[in-house]
Amino acid sequence: GYVRLAEPITPALLEATRQLATQAGALPRFAETLSRAADRARDQRELGLACDLYLRLGAMYEAELNDPALAAAKYAEAEATGDRQVEAWRALDRVCAASGDKAGQIRALRAWVNTGVESDGLAEQLDALYRLAAIELADEATREDGCEALTWALDREPQYERAAAMLREAAQAAPTHEKL
Question: Do residues 115 and 86 touch, judged by C-beta distance below 8 A?
Fold first, then answer.
């Protein structure tokens, strides 16, 4: 079989088609078709649609096709559209953390914490900042950046117990580091 998406592409149509493709064992082919549709939307500057399709693809590769590398690639393409970037960064953080891609996770978290967010997203962004600090503090190559991220997090909203636990862990790994 050949999988073809009807126009216009709606969320209900996508979900129904995804379910049919799953039942037919054709989910990888559906993902390829959806990827072509996302690329086409991006090329035609329909960035909202492209972003939505890339986010759906990322979720499909992450949860159903068990391919974290392709999931991260699709989430990165969603991010590149400039639409719904916080959602893309959350997804990149999650998939990179699960696959052990520290560099990818740091990049996503840095982008997320360095952007303005709506007031209802501040707590989540602050949590991302503390997680970024923890990841960077744990690695010698990024420890200085981790110290800066933790200082920034503490300036925004002090979470002393959380910070103390991070610093204790980092100090055990680098007992002679001057800032720890």
Answer: yes
